[in-house]
């Protein structure tokens, strides 16, 4: 019986496909292998696109690379994946030039997984479409990557998992059920004194059985580049080694995972650290995309926040092969307020110094939250100046100080460039350090208590010692709405000061680090210890502070900082930034009743100066 037209067309297509595959295999087998030679892009809006040629499962990869102009609105998809191991151990054959492209193992797996059997697939792939050895082109193309992912018809996310779709659906359903079961416990945490311990034990038993955590423990989630690749995408296709995932499945999983990991109880459990980090990062990523799409109904993308804020909120803790990408990967999703262009000919230290200076000159002091001297990580080999952030050891700003105060918010930031790697910032000098406690997490309570007993009071502050505790507790209250353990530890300190007894842990654990109460306190206090100034002000600052360090409040700052004199050049004092600090009575913009002036009134006496006036100065950070 003769075949109908559909059967005939289908057979012809199959024959053409077989011939095409045979020719590809023949060409790849009979030509000498030579590396692909990139030609210069023709126009400023040009990008390269990969035409991934069809192939059977396991057959060699083949493609054509074409030059396309963005202004012509080409139709393509974009790949989002983790580079994986840097070794270029696999190859792709570029048929037009009969040359070989070297790629990583993970990219090779991704291309095999997304390749169609019978038709080409046009896709943008960073490792292939950008000439990685041409730094000028690389900088130009990286600047276009936001547009590239925004204009792609679809972003294909390669997770690399070997898990069947139906199995993943079961895991997501399991997560939803767990979130529902735990809801009553979360409600009880604020009222029942032991609900936290009961809940923590139940969580540990259950979470160790949740296989879905393996789904989120993938390199893709930790890449800094996925922020723009995912957030800017019109449409997302999730791909695993077992096939494509249903639309919305991953988003549902993340939403439910967030519902059981954002609580303070999870944050205070050391052995659940990976869970809460994964949940926090994924929810942050997914919520940003939702916000952008919700605000993009007018056709305009909504920038999430400033570049500096994005750096702290997104880039910290995420990975990238090139440290410069910690900044460059955020340019497309942040407000364009600093006029930074990708330039890979510059060293990371130069780029980050420029970023810091531009931020300060724009009146943004946020970078100072994570900057300063730290003898534990500074070995003298770093090319960075001390007042800029050490990007190799970057962590989140201190929780208890992170923009929760307003020490000098009544004044605008006044910053100016002083030299190539220095800035001058206006502010007032409050006092110098006199006494500092030991660094040990528990024993410094006792160290301070002994010192306090000898002093009997807080000279110069005129405040009840309990005010310190209430101020600190009020600042950290938003961080731990369900878990009062950090609060209890702080009150133990206050009780110690009043009763002159050594503090005892509430649960008397065998090892302090095994108790979530102490872990929460450790996270809260980071590397901070207590200090007293010459005039008796009580504070909390970096453990590497020294006597005679100066407490300074910059105009517009949320928190005071500690400065250490570095040198005097041509009559101008230069200062090292030690770090930010807390100072009792100085955190809410009233300067402890002092009047801030540009210069001391001519009729002011010495006693009036001591009690009433603070004179503005310019502090040069070096």
Fold topology:
Layout lengths: L4 H26 L15 E7 L9 E8 L7 E4 L9 E5 L4 E5 L1 H10 L6 E4 L1 H4 L5 H17 L2 E5 L6 H24 L6 H13 L4 H5 L2 H4 L3 H6 L4 E5 L2 E2 L4 H13 L2 H4 L5 H23 L11 H9 L9 H4 L19 H14 L53 E5 L2 E15 L6 H13 L9 H12 L8 H15 L16 H10 L2 E6 L4 E5 L7 E5 L6 E9 L2 E9 L1 E2 L11 E3 L8 H7 E9 L1
Parallel strand pairs: 2-4, 3-6, 3-7, 7-8, 16-19, 18-19
Antiparallel strand pairs: 1-2, 1-6, 4-5, 8-9, 10-11, 11-12, 11-14, 11-19, 12-13, 13-17, 14-15, 15-16
Helix pairs in contact: 5-6, 5-10, 10-12, 17-18
Can you walk me through this structure?
The chain starts with a helix and ends with a strand. Helices cover 37% and strands 18% of the residues. Helix 5 (165-188) packs antiparallel against helix 6 and helix 17 packs antiparallel against helix 18. It folds into 3 domains: 46-158, no CATH class; 165-218 and 246-295; 309-439 and 527-622, no CATH class. The radius of gyration is 29 Å and the shape is elongated. It is built from 20 helices and 19 strands. It is α/β, with parallel strands linked by helices and 622 residues long. The strands form 2 sheets. It has a 9-stranded mixed β-sheet, sandwiched between helices. The protein has helices at 5-30, 105-114, 126-129, 135-151, 165-188, 195-207, 212-216, 219-222, 226-231, 249-261, 264-267, 273-295, 307-315, 325-328, 348-361, 443-455, 465-476, 485-499, 516-525, 606-612; strands at residues 46-52, 62-69, 77-80, 90-94, 99-103, 121-124, 154-158, 236-240, 243-244, 415-419, 422-436, 528-533, 538-542, 550-554, 561-569, 572-580, 582-583, 595-597, 613-621. Mean pLDDT is 73; it is low at 1-16, 267-271, 297-302, 395-403 and 472-524.
């Amino acid at each position: 019986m003769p075949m109908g037209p559909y059967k005939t067309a289908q057979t012809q297509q199959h024959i053409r496909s077989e011939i095409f595959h045979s020719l590809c295999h023949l060409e790849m087998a009979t030509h000498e292998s030579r590396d692909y030679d990139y030609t210069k892009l023709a126009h400023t809006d040009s990008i390269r696109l990969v035409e991934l040629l069809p192939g059977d499962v396991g057959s060699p990869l083949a493609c054509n690379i074409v030059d396309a102009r963005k202004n012509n609105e080409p139709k393509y998809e974009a790949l989002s994946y983790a580079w994986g191991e840097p070794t270029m151990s696999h190859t792709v054959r570029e048929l037009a030039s009969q040359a070989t492209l070297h790629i990583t193992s993970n990219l090779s797996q991704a291309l095999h997984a997304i390749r169609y059997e019978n038709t080409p697939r046009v896709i943008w792939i960073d490792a292939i479409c950008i000439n990685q050895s041409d730094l000028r082109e690389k900088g130009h193309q990286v600047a276009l990557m936001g547009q590239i992912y925004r204009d792609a018809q679809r972003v294909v996310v390669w997770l690399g998992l070997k898990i069947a779709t139906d199995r993943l659906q079961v895991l997501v359903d399991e997560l939803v059920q767990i979130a529902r079961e735990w809801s009553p416990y979360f409600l009880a945490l604020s009222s029942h004194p032991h609900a936290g311990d009961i809940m923590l034990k139940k969580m540990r038993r259950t979470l160790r059985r949740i296989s879905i955590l393996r789904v989120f423990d993938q390199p893709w989630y930790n890449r800094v580049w996925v922020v723009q690749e995912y957030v800017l995408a019109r449409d997302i296709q999730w791909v695993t080694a077992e096939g494509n995932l249903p639309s919305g499945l991953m988003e549902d999983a993340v939403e439910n995972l967030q519902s059981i990991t954002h609580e303070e109880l999870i944050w205070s459990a050391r052995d659940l650290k990976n869970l809460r980090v994964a949940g926090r990062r994924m929810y942050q990523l997914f919520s940003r995309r939702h916000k952008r799409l919700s605000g993009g109904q007018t056709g305009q993308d909504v920038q999430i926040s400033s570049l500096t804020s994005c750096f702290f909120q997104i880039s910290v803790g995420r990975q990238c092969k090139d440290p410069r990408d910690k900044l460059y990967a955020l340019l497309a999703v942040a407000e364009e307020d600093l006029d930074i262009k990708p330039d890979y000919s510059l060293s990371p230290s130069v780029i980050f110094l420029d970023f810091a200076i531009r931020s300060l000159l724009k009146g943004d002091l946020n970078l100072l939250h994570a900057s300063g001297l730290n003898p534990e990580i500074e070995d003298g080999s770093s090319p960075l100046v001390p007042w800029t952030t050490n990007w190799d050891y970057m962590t989140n700003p201190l929780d208890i100080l992170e923009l929760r105060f307003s020490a000098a918010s009544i004044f605008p930031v006044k910053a100016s460039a002083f030299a190539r790697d220095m800035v001058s910032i206006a502010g007032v000098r409050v006092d110098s350090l006199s006494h500092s406690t030991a660094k040990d997490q528990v024993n410094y309570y006792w160290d301070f208590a002994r010192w306090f007993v000898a002093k009997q009071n807080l000279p110069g502050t005129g405040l009840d010692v309990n005010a310190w505790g209430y101020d600190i507790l009020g600042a950290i209250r938003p961080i731990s709405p369900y878990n009062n353990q950090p609060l209890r530890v702080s009150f133990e300190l206050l009780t110690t000061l009043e009763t002159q007894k050594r503090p005892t842990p509430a649960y008397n654990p065998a090892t302090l680090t095994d108790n979530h109460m102490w872990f929460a306190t450790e996270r809260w206090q980071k590397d901070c210890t207590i200090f007293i100034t010459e005039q008796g002000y009580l504070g909390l600052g970096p453990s590497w502070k020294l006597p005679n360090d100066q407490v300074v409040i910059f105009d517009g700052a949320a928190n005071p900082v500690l400065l250490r004199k570095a040198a005097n050049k041509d009559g101008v004092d230069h200062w090292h930034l030690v770090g930010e600090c807390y100072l009792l009575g100085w955190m809410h913009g009233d300067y402890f009743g002092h009047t801030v002036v540009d210069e001391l009134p001519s009729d002011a006496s010495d006693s009036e100066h001591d009690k009433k006036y603070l004179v503005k100065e310019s502090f040069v950070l070096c």
